């Protein structure tokens, strides 16, 4: 995961580790390399620039030049800053409702349906919950079918209504069904489009308004880099979602989305998807991710 970024950051610190006497020029060069590494990982220019400015200020504040191991101190400062940038402490999903309603949003292909299944499986096996999956994609019968396949695989019931073209109604009926049948979590999988469009936004905003979910999650493909960040912003402007799910972190992603998204929408990344299988879900811990990036 993020091998390229890790390599480049490692090389950046070589500058500091290689010198007998460290000068402020060495520190500046290191930070320049750190910034370049972030830009190469597809982190937005301003975020990368602010990042290195903050690290530089801290390095000055801690008198990095007079410490015994300036290289190690700089690694620590960068690690702390990365952790902060990716979200500080980990936060779970809000399961306080009865049932707790979780609305999934995101573009088509982002991994929404797969993640809905993974989350249902996670809540069932790890949190002892009885989840209900709800198919609200009225445009693609294949999507509804896909959710049924997922549900069968993990032993979770899937609620769908053949022929009903009203996602608000389907979601509301599903919640009634959950209440009547002892389901304590309802995960609503919604329709996505290939790009953000007003019609889709209106539709999911209507569903959101009608069911008042405890948790609205935005699912995004980490491989899409800065596009992921722009899409997140568009969805957040409309839905004011509670958290981000980054999928496909097992792929050849450069890491920019993971690093930037929190600072753009100010919402935590809650889970990551690391594969197509139902078990390929991890709670997102910013500090662990920073640890991994910096080795
Ligand atoms: P949706 O249109 O948003 O519901 O997206 P899907 O759940 O259908 O996922 C789109 C494709 O991405 C499918 O082929 C999934 O198997 C794949 N996929 C979803 N999550 C992950 C993941 O974390 N890693 C990988 N490698 N593939 C994933």
TrEMBL record:
Signal peptide: none annotated. It catalyses: GTP + H2O = GDP + phosphate + H(+). Keywords: Cytoplasm, GTP-binding, Hydrolase, Nucleotide-binding, Ribonucleoprotein, RNA-binding, Signal recognition particle. Its main location: cytoplasm. Its EC number is 3.6.5.4. One of its GO terms (biological process) is SRP-dependent cotranslational protein targeting to membrane. This is Signal recognition particle protein. It comes from Flavobacterium akiainvivens. The lineage of its organism: Bacteria, Pseudomonadati, Bacteroidota, Flavobacteriia, Flavobacteriales. The gene is ffh.
């Amino acid at each position: 995961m993020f091998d390229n970024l890790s390599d480049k950051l490692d090389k950046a610190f070589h500058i500091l580790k290689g010198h007998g006497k460290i000068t402020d020029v060495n520190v500046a060069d290191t930070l320049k390399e750190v910034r370049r590494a972030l830009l190469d990982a597809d982190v937005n220019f301003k975020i990368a620039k602010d990042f290195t400015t903050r690290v530089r200020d801290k390095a000055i504040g801690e008198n990095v030049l007079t410490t015994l191991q300036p290289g190690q101190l700089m690694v620590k400062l960068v690690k702390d800053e990365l952790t902060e940038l990716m979200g500080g402490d980990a936060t779970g999903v809000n399961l306080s409702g009865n049932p707790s309603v979780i609305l999934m949003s995101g573009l088509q292909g982002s991994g929404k349906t797969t993640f809905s299944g993974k989350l249902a499986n996670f809540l069932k096996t790890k949190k002892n919950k009885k989840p209900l999956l709800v198919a609200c994609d009225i445009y693609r019968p294949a999507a509804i079918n896909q959710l049924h396949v997922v549900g069968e695989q993990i032993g979770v019931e899937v609620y769908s209504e053949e022929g009903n073209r009203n996602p608000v109604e389907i979601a509301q009926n599903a919640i009634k069904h959950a209440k009547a049948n002892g389901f304590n979590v309802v995960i609503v999988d919604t329709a996505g489009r290939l790009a953000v469009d007003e019609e889709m936004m209106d539709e999911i905003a209507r569903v959101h308004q009608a069911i008042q979910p405890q948790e609205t999650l935005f699912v995004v493909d980490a491989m899409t880099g800065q596009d992921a960040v722009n899409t997140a912003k568009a969805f957040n402007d409309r839905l004011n979602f509670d958290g981000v799910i980054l999928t496909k972190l097992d792929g050849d992603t450069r890491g920019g989305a993971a690093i930037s998204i929190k600072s753009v929408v100010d919402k935590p990344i809650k889970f990551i998807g690391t594969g197509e299988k139902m078990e390929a879900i991890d709670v997102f811990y910013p500090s662990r991710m920073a640890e991994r990036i910096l080795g």
